[in-house]
Each structure stands twice: as C-alpha cells, then as structure tokens.
UniProtKB/TrEMBL annotation:
Record keywords: Signal, Transport
InterPro entries the record matches: ABC_SsuA_sub-bd, Solute-binding_3/MltF_N, SsuA/THI5
Main location: periplasm
Glycosyltransferase is among the record's keywords: no
SUPFAM superfamilies named among the record's database cross-references: Periplasmic binding protein-like II
A GO CC term assigned to this protein in UniProt: periplasmic space
Cellular compartments annotated: Periplasm
Protein name: Putative aliphatic sulfonates-binding protein
Pfam families: NMT1
Gene3D superfamilies: Periplasmic binding protein-like II (3.40.190.10)
Annotated organism of origin: Nonomuraea soli
Alphabetized CDD domains for the sequence: PBP2_SsuA_like_2
Length: 308
C-alpha cells in the first residue's frame, strides 16, 4: 500500500511539474547575427519543448538588452559588449551562458577602393558602429592598439541595416561590424576587411536573462540553455543543413550565409573564473576609455547555475 501511495505521489508531482511548464512562455530576443530561432529549428531542438516560446527580432544586441530590462523580453543572446553597457546603466540582467565563436567575421570593413590601408589610417574618419555592441569593443581595441582613441574618429552610431546603406553610398569611411553583416558587405558592396577580431576581441556570445525571469522561469530557462548547447553541437557537424535553414529564415543569400557560418563555429564553455577574467578586460576597456559611466564588475552579473 505504501509503495502504491509513493508511486501516486511521484506521478502527481511529475504531472504538476509538466503542467507548470506548459503554462510558461519564454520571451526570447533574437537577431540575424545569432539566428537562435533558425538554429533551434534546424537542429530539431524546437520539438517537444514543454513550454511556449515567443520570439522577437532585433537588429543587434543593445536593443535586446533594453527589452530585457524593460521586462518585455526574458532572455536573448548578445556579444561581449551589450551586458557591460547594460550593467553600467543599472539594468537588472544576468549572464547565464556563454559560447565562443570565430573572430574572422568580427571586422572593420572599408570600401574596396578606400585609401585606408591600416588602423592608423582611421584617424579623422567617419566610422559606423552600433553603440554598445561587440563591434564597439572591437573598434575601441583596434584604435587603442594603433595609438588612437574615440576622440580621434567621428563615430557614426548606426544599426547594421543603416550602416550597410551608408557604406554603399559612401557616406561613411568604415564600418565596425560582425557576421553575417560582414559577409553581406563583402558580397553586396564589395567591402574589404581592414582588420578582423583576431588578437582584439574574445569572441564571446552570451545568453542574458532578466533577473525577474530567472526567479519565475528558471526551470524553462535551464532547459532552453541545454537545447542551445545541443543545437551548437549539431550546427558544427551539419553545416550545409544549418546554412539552408538559416538562409531561408533570415532572407539572406545562401552565399552570404555560407561564408558567415564557416567563420563562426560555436564552442560552449562554462562561466568560470577564467571566462569572467577575460570578459572583465572588455568592461575595464570601456570604463577606462570613458565610454560607460562607471566601472562594471563582471562577476557581479554572472549567474553560473546553468554551468555544465
């Protein structure tokens, strides 16, 4: 009799947990640069999800951070800089996952016939960049290594679609950007890569969640992070299938997608002390350059509960 009761209690608890999951909706911010919805769909990780997912599309990471802080989105994937700017602004966010990707698609591009041949030639030039994006840090690092600062250039704070148009019309001299936009600029306006992210950036793509969502939807978020990791593993071993779905869902030309994805294989890593230390360098660079209002301690915005 006791065994029957125990089994009944276990079944009831399982049913209750499933019911609770069915009532949960994860609101996820996505962008072309990460293609999370496409990635999960292509890899089969959207099958049998026990909760609902609502997708919202953004042009870059900073608007996703704003949406998370406003409570209109629960989580999303961004590059290395958006969480630094968000934390400096007092946003209630947490870094909950991280993957490394290639650095050759993180680039500063110039028109094919540009006289700009080295980072030193960027002095005095109009350079487009999405403020607070991973490209913002890449540009800062490139300038500093060349002995320049942001005060030596004329930054044009533009989102990727506007920056691509500006590059094509010649209204800017250079563009700091990431894939797939780098590949798009190379193909559509014959842009030339002046310098990529190798030796400058850390290649981190973070999963960011609002602290309120972590309190209310932790179980679903943990499952979602697990699915992202499995999707990354699938994408790295099925590049052709991944490229086909990515091109279809984003509307990007297959040739652009193929170049971008070949440059951006993902490796999921833990939010350990080494990872935090590498990201702290990004935060310190921004505060040291006066591009954020105060210093940010990365360890204070890391939640490692979903580490493997």
């Amino acid at each position: 009799m006791k065994r029957i009761v125990a089994i009944a209690v276990l079944l009831l608890a399982t049913a209750t947990a499933c019911s609770k999951q069915e009532d949960v909706t994860l609101r996820i911010g996505d962008q072309k640069g990460t293609g999370l919805q496409a990635l999960l769909q292509a890899s089969g990780q959207l099958k049998d999800v026990p909760y609902k997912i609502s997708w919202s599309q953004f042009t870059s990471g900073p608007p996703i951070m704003e949406a998370i802080n406003a409570g209109s989105v629960d989580l999303g994937a961004v590059g290395n800089s958006p969480p630094v700017f968000a934390a400096a602004a007092g946003s209630k966010i947490a870094i909950i996952g991280v993957a490394e990707k290639g650095l050759t698609g993180q680039a500063i591009v110039v028109p094919a016939n540009s006289a700009i041949q080295s980072p030193a030639d960027l002095k005095g030039k109009k350079i487009a960049v999405a403020k607070g994006s991973s490209a913002n840090f890449h540009l800062l690092a490139v300038l500093q290594k060349a002995g320049l600062s942001f005060s030596d250039i004329s930054p044009q704070y533009l989102q990727p679609p506007d920056a691509l148009a500006a590059l094509s019309t010649g209204s800017i001299d250079a563009w700091a950007i990431w894939d797939p936009y780098t590949a798009q600029a190379q193909e559509q306006v014959k842009a030339r890569i002046l310098v990529d992210g190798t030796g400058y950036a850390n290649g981190f793509e973070f999963q960011i969640a609002g602290t309120a969502a972590l309190g209310e939807k932790s179980e679903a978020i943990g499952d979602y992070i697990r699915r992202i990791r499995l999707a990354h593993e699938w994408a790295n071993t099925h590049p052709a299938e991944w490229a086909a779905v990515y091109a279809k869902l984003t509307g990007l030309p297959p040739s652009v997608v193929t170049v971008a994805l070949n440059r951006n294989r993902f490796t999921d890593i833990n939010l350990d002390s080494a990872t935090i230390a590498r990201q702290q360098l990004v935060a310190d660079a921004f505060s040291g350059a006066g591009l954020i209002p105060h210093a940010v301690k990365i360890a204070d915005i890391v939640d490692g509960r979903f580490n493997r």
